[in-house]
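Re: Re: ligand-bound prediction request (bumping)

Still looking for help on this. To restate: I need the protein modeled with T4K bound, output as structure tokens. Inputs repeated here so nobody has to scroll up.
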Amino acid sequence: MPDSSTPSIELRNEAVNEQQKRRRMTLPAGGEGKLFAEPLHVGRPNLADRERLLSRFSAVLQRQWLSNNGPCVQEFEAAIAERLGVRHCVAVANATLGLQLAVRALGLGGEVIVPSFTFPATVHALAWQGIRPVFVDVDPVTHNIDPEQVALLVGPQTTGILGVHLWGNPCDTQALERIASRHGLALLFDAAHAFGCAHRGRMIGSFGRAEVFSFHATKFLSCGEGGAVTTNDDELANSLRRLRSFGYEGDQVAELGINAKMNELNAAMGLCSLECYDRFVARNAANLTAYRDVLAEARGLCLFAPPTADLRNHQYVVVEVNSQEAGITRDAVLAALHEENVLAKRYFHPGCHRLAPYAALYDRQRTPLPHTEELSQRLLQFPTGMAVTPADIHRIGEFLQHLTSLHKHAA
Ligand code: T4K
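Reply:
Sorry for the wait, this slipped through. Here it is.
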């Protein structure tokens, strides 16, 4: 408990603002008085070799075959399936559509249990299929869906569990598999963050009935826009292929499908990104090490270390802000970083249960989600990827150390 002589966080934040202005005189500026002349983004695309990309684009144009299961899409699917050790990869236009196809192909309806602490697309995909999301809390250590809480939420309307491998950190797949099989539920995973991650000696991609990846511009491996559903189930894969292309089976429409096809240019980009995979992971790993070093010296800022992955892509640098220790709120840290052109993000704030489309539904559900509430107030994601260097991170670190040490003087 803070004693009554300790100034409130608000007062301390004000004092910090004042001191920040003064610190500009002491830290080297990158232009216009900011730490960096150009913004550093979370989610700056990792771009593949430009010559390779232009050569693949040129081949696509030469063939005049731009979509509808073209050769680049087929090559991309084969490369992903091989890398992940899974029988089928069905490339799609984006992960949101991939999730919708997966829940539809699995015949889910009624209710599906899903974490609230995720990007809205996870939950939207259910709602677009007329499924009621039942929000479950996450584990405060892993930030992933908590199997014990899942077990408590299974009811007569439940048809599935949709886990999210948040930050590329694999869910407790074993515990979830046990619950799913005990209750005859379909288990699938949103693996939007987890391309290249492994768990229990297996690549993410073959757990549950299906897993869904995102290859959006901001993702570690990018097609510009894109996604994929992976599965070991032959029948499910056939169904996914039909659904993504209007329901066509040969030249007959066999069922109600949609257009979720990946096009050739996106697939060409994905293939080039795959060629640079090792380089991307190495930079992310070096950046993470730099963050670990600098954050060790910043009070109240704790780097999240995913505890359950065998292999990682380090796509997200996740930092927990302990306001009491740091002497400054998470949002004040965010504002201070933005002032300096470091465009950190608040993923995911607020939890999905508080978003307009779901608030009334959650009012009726009433399950407390304390860890979701807490994490959505405390986390920040920092820039990484090919557009950021360890040297940049050392400058960010110096700034953060300065910012948090001001607390000592302000308190
Ligand atoms: N499931 C999960 C768990 C997800 O996280 C996501 C997507 C999905 C499903 C759905 O996947 P897709 O259907 O998109 O394949 C971004 C991404 O747009 C979103 O794809 C991603 N998750 C989410 C975590 O991050 P925003 O709202 O933060 O995007 P935005 O436009 O603010 O961009 C973030 C930063 O990236 C900006 O500072 C600018 C920079 N940026 C962005 C783009 C698009 C660039 O530098 N270049 C670019 O081309 O959601």
